[in-house]
Amino acid sequence: MDDKTDLLRSLPPLSSYSPEESVAHSLDRARLYHDQLVAAMPGLIVHREGAILHCSGTLARLLGYQSAEQVMALPDVMALVPEDARLAERNAYARCLQEGPTQPLARRIKRHRADTSIQWFDQLLEPVDWGGAPAVMEMLTQMRPEAANAEVPHQGQLLQAAIDAMPNGVLMLDRDLRLEGANSEYFRLWDYPPGMFPPGTPVAETLYYNHRRGDYGDVPCEETVAELCTRFLVKGVINSERQVPTNGRILDIRTAPRADGGYVITQHDITDRKRIEDELREAKERAEAILKELRETQQQLIVQEKMASLGQLTAGIAHELKNPLNFVNNFAELSGELLDEMLALLEPLNDHLDDATRGDVDDLVDSLQSNLRKIADHGRRADNIVKSMLAHSRGGGGEWQTTDLNALVEEALSLSYHAVRAQDRNFNATLERRFAADVGEVKLVPQDMSRVLVNLFTNSFYAVRKRQLTCGNPDYEPTLRITTEARGSEVSIRIHDNGVGMPPAVVDKLFTPFFTTKPTGEGTGLGLSLSYDIVVHQHRGRFDVSSIENEHAEFAITLPRIVTAMSLGERRKT
Asked: Which residue windows are transmembrane per the record (predicted)?
């Protein structure tokens, strides 16, 4: 029973009033009866594509209008629908025209009254033929709560308020996968307009909406929605992750069955957690990269220290050799001068010697002079080698200088060739020099670049000697071809040998520290690694390698003519 019925029953009988009062109270009773009958009668409204075609007087009075004409004068039927329910109503009207009255139960909807207040109705929709064209007929009955259930709406409001206050999105489905309820966080997380999917809406409608806005990409609609619907049909609790394309949120979705056959789906926004996890992973990767770089730098420093110690040892030996070489060169020159003086003193005695004796004396003098010249030549040659050793033994970090590149290459070639021959007297190789005259001078660190070249030449000599010993071909001739070339703002040095070469797997690892193809004890695996660091990092050049196994190997160094000096720290950052 509603409030008006209770009020009618509470009125005193008409016999207790005077005639004038009884007439007034009779009119009051009539109005109450009228209002009760109007509330119980369904109101009708017919519309097509929003335009109102018909409205019953009953519905007009239920909505607080004086006449049906006032309702029909509205711009369209959506003027009666609150803004947050308009999308759901449009969808319901479209389904009614397409599918007919498939909903067996009334929908609970709300409408604006004439005074802009909200009135709730039970709604039934039915397609009708109006004027030869299809239209939608709504039958609206004002909701009248039973007295016994007077507290149910209040309890429902409290429950909905509690669900809306939850930090997670909540969606409840019945056994037929129709929406029974959802909180505001669910609509926010999925970027749905509030009230877009009212209770009773198939969950497939939400998936169709997602597909239309492009959430699933270019995939078939029907098959995709059908497959997604099956994911709700779970026997136990299932967790999954999903990213909402429209806002980038990452949701942890938990689907659980209910005892009544329905389902509860909760969505937890884990975007911030994923972001923090990604940041931590990136920070870990950066820390590992920095640690690796520090270890490599430490190893480089150790190697540099060893090289510096070796350079100091080489410099000490070279200095010790230089003193006796100076004596050899000086005494060879002095002996030549003394021999000339002695011949000048003995010249008057020539007439007292017979022809045979004079011939023997001349031969001895020529031999002595030839030997002295050879001593002087080889002494100067040994002196040049010692100077090259001293230059090469100077540690890294030397001064950047404008250097004659061809001369530097020739000096390194001579030094390495003589070093190899000192270890193996039987070794000889053909050296083909193709130095371009226009290479000219290049700004570099001579000591470091000399170390690179000596290392490359030594490796090439090792390769050709190894092939000579293993190929079994007496006609094989070890050959090195050294080419320098000017290329505008750059210069190049190419070292080509016809040695044992390298397979591709070795070429890929060639500049890795401590990687070597030489037998144990013959190579440290550091020469090419340090050479690569000097060429690429220090001098900002390029270091290329090409090779065919058992045929040839070629190392190509390309350097800019002018480069800004770099510190060790800067070299490690590049």
From this structure: none
